[in-house]
Amino acid sequence: MRTRPAGPPMSAPAFRRLLAYCRPGFEGECAQELAALDARQSGAGYARAARGSGHVEFVSDDAPALAGSWRDLVFARQLLGVLGEARDLPPKDRLSVLLPMIEGEDPADGPCRWCDAWVEAPDSDAARELAPLCRGLEAALVAALKQRKLIDRASRWRLHLCMTATDAAYVAVAERTLSAPWPGGIPRLKFPRGAPSRSTLKLEEALLVLLDEGERERWLEPGMRAVDLGASPGGWTWQLVARSLHVTAVDNGPMDAALLASGLVDHLRADGFRYRPTRPVDWLVCDMVEQPRRVAELMAHWLAEGLCRHAIFNLKLPMKKRHDEVRLCLDLVAGALAASGRRVEVRAKQLYHDREEITVYARVA
Which of 185, 213, 228 is where one domain is finished? Predict the structure, then answer.
C-alpha cells in the first residue's frame, strides 16, 4: 500500500454542498433553516431531502462560508461539507472506491490529512441498521489512513463518511472546532442511576450541547439557586441537585422522595405560570407542556425583569409551520429583552432526547 511523507495540515477543502443531520421528520425545517442562512449570503442555494431520512443536502456556492454555522442552527445536529458521493459501492471492497475520493491530493497543498475519521449513518429507521457496517468500516478506514500517514492530530479537519445505504456514502468534512464533537451529532448518554424520570436526559444533553465546558464550570457553581417550573417528578431538578444547586421545585404534582431528602430541594405546590421568586435566582429551567408562545412569553418576562440570569426551557412545537413558530418564539424572547434595555444571548437546538420540541438556552449578557 502506497504511503506518503508527513506534512503540514491541509488548508480548507473545497466543496459546494453541505450535509446536515437532523431528527427524522424534521428535514423540511432543517432545509428552511439552511435556506435562511444561505439567504444572508447569496440566497442562491437549494435543498434536497427525503422525509424521514434524517439528513438534508444543501447546494450553494457559499457552502464553505456556511459550514461553520452548526451552533447557529436549531434543527441541524451536525453540519458537514460534502467532498464527494459514491454509489454502487462493492460490498467486499468499499474502500477501493472511497479512498481515492478521500485522498484528493492538491499539488499545491499536498495530500489531505485528518485529525480523525468517523463513519456514521443518519438517525433514521433504515440507517440505524447500518451501525454494524459503520463500526467495521471505520476501523478499516482509520487503519488505511494511518498506513498512508493521512492522520494528523494537529489538523483542523475531521473526515466523515455518511453511509446512507450499504452501497452508498457521502464523503464529507468538518472543522472540528466548529462542528458537533459527537458522531452523528448525538452525545450518547446513559440514564443516571437514581434519576426519577427519563426527562433528566433532556437537561443533561442541553447542558452539553448548548454550553461549552468552560461555561458549565463558570455558570453552574455549587451553591447557586435555581427554580424548576413544572418540576414533577424531578428529572430536571435531579440534574441541578447533582451539581449542588439549591432548587425551588414548582409543581402541583408529587416530587421524588430522594430529591426532597437531599436537603437541596424546596417543593412548592403552585402554578408555574403564576409563581415568582422573592429574590432573583441564578437559573430558571422549565419543561412545562404548554403552547410554545406562552412559555416563551413567560421566559422573556423572567429574564427582562431580572428574576434569573440563565434559563433553559423547552418549546413544544405545533404540527405545522414548526420553523416559523420557532423563529417567532426566539424573536419574542430577544425582543422583550431589547425592549427592557437588557441584552440577551439565545441558543437553541432540537436535541436527540427532544421529540416534537426544541430546547432553548438564554442568558442576560
Answer: 185
Mean pLDDT on 238-256? 97
Using DSSP bridges, classify how beta strands 246-250 and 225-229 pair: parallel, antiparallel or unpaired: parallel
Is 316 catalytic? The answer is yes
Residue 190 lies in a domain: no
**Residue 249: pLDDT band with limits 50, 70, 90:** very high
Q: For the chain, give the percent of residues with pLDDT over 90.
A: 87
Which of 185, 208, 223 is the last residue before a domain boundary? 185
In a domain, 8, yes or no: no
- Cis previous bond, 233, omega within 30: yes
My answer on whether 103 and 251 are in the same domain is no
Residues 347 and 282 in one domain: yes
Confidence (pLDDT) at 111? 64
| 254 annotated ligand-binding residue | no
Burial 267-286 (b: 16+ CB within 10 A, else e): beeeebbeeeeeeebbbbbb
Overall number of domains in the chain: 2
CB-CB contact of 272 with 230 (8 Å) = yes
pLDDT tens profile 183-229: 999 999 999 999 999 999 999 999 999 999 999 999 999 999 999 99
234 assigned binding-site residue: yes
**Residue 276 pLDDT > 80:** yes
DSSP code per residue over 289-322:
-S-HHHHHHHHHHHHHTTSEEEEEEEEEPPSS-H
CA dihedral 178, 211, 346, 205 (to 10 degrees): 100
Average pLDDT taken over every residue of the chain:
93
Is 212 in the same domain as 165?
no
* 7 in a labelled binding site: no
CA 235, 241, 244 angle in degrees (round to 5)?
160
Q: Known binder of ligand: residue 287?
A: yes
CATH number of the domain encompassing residue 96: 3.30.70.2810
Given a cut of 90, whether residue 19 has pLDDT beyond it is yes
Q: By residue range, what is the domain housing residue 127?
A: 17-185
Q: Any residues with CB less than 8 A from the CB of 107 and at least 6 apart, and which?
A: none
Determine which one of 146, 149, 202, 316 is catalytic.
Answer: 316
123 annotated to bind ligand = no
117 and 236 share a domain?
no
CATH code assigned at 262: 3.40.50.150
